[in-house]
Amino acid sequence: MATGYKEGSLDAPTRHALPWREESWYDEAALDAELRRVFDICHGCRRCFNLCDSFPKLFDMIDESPNEEVEDLSAGQIKQVVDACTLCDMCFMVKCPYVPPHEFNLDFPHLMLRYRAVEHRKGETSKADRLLAETDRNGKLGSVLSDVANWATDGKSETTRGIMQQMLGIDKRAHLPKFADIPLTNRAVALVPAPNPDAPGFGRRVALYASCYDQFNDQTPGEAAVKVLAHNGVEVRIEHPECCAMPKLENGDIPAVASAAARVAAHFAPLIDQGYDVVAITASCALMMKFEWPLIEPDNEDIRKLSAATHDISEYIVKLSKQAGLTPVEAMDASIGVHFACHSRAQNMGPKAMEMLKLIPEAKPVLTERCSGHGGKWGIYQQNFDTAVKLARPAVRSLEKTAPDYMVSECPLAGSHLKQVMEQGGAAKLPERIGHPVELMAKAYGL
Ligand code: SF4
Ligand code: SF4
């Protein structure tokens, strides 16, 4: 499957469908040989030395081994490389010259995924990873008991955070998202305004896919997206049939991802037939729906249809502005630090948040491309938190360089992690929040 434009290369990279139903994919000797083949190529190349913690670990371990050979690595050392990977996709999308159709046929993130799929099949996924991947169940429970849940997970609740650290390995210093007391879809009737019939986008229909985070935690980006779209004439409905299963993908639980993908795609198929575009508020969900699901279930017609109909919210607003025009946006003389989240970059659509914010007259967005280091649930674990903070520092420095009036990120977890690292670093000018770029569009519209 071709994934479109690739940064730094003229060739369109392709990604093979994941053969997760074939027994040979789980053969541990074959996997070990493939890991060593790929690690050897990477060790010679080293381009990805500063993308994450996996590559420096890999290179150091080979360099410090007796013969400086990949064959010297123990099984435990290989696991360390896999465990340091957040599946951000950056090495495949941005840097690697050896991805298919190159004969080296190298797809580092999907090799890490294969390792985790083998671990998952053997029942070796940790209890914490399994619990945290049940985002819908956790979100429903957290919403019903929001007062208690928000108190227990707050960084100031030392006893409960200490228990969570001991039982689940969640670092007590890591910021955890608050729960909303009512899920976003339950507020849809009150929240979604009638589309403006005089606006250029009138006649278009959007089914807005709320991520678990939009549904159960921070609803500000969803509210802003609804208002901006309706103000531009678009008829909007909010949908959250279930989680996109990114946390289960991180666990290597491919069968669970495949069944979630089939159910969500079946939910959206009739809406697409009725003329709805599907728009994801959170970048990770858009990545799953556009690219990962079709590689897991390439023969599922609903999934193919959903993949083609899915847009990221910034991408959709930019597209709307080009195809139909936008309701005039008020000028906003403000500098904006824009964090280009990995799962937004991995969609191969260019920095759409930048393009969208440039639609605000007098706004001055400045792009930061460095990874936040958070990586879904990866960064909250005790064994990863300090590394997640270290990895965030270049992104924080870049964001702070222009002392912007606002900071935004298309990844909500990256945004709150970056803010926490700024707080720890004693930033002179702390942002009130690092929200989604669409919130600034809503602000510019005075919504
Ligand atoms: S997918 Fe991301 S975290 Fe994993 S190895 Fe590649 S760049 Fe590193
Ligand atoms: S993933 Fe590709 S670009 Fe990165 S170090 Fe390996 S071979 Fe080089």
UniProtKB/TrEMBL annotation:
InterPro entries: Cys_rich_dom. Residues 206-290, 337-413 form the Cysteine-rich domain. The lineage of its organism: Bacteria, Pseudomonadati, Pseudomonadota, Alphaproteobacteria, Sphingomonadales. One of its GO terms (molecular function) is 4 iron, 4 sulfur cluster binding. It comes from the Bacteria. The keyword NADP does not apply. Keywords: 4Fe-4S, Iron, Iron-sulfur, Metal-binding, Repeat. The keyword Protein biosynthesis does not apply. This is Fe-S oxidoreductase.
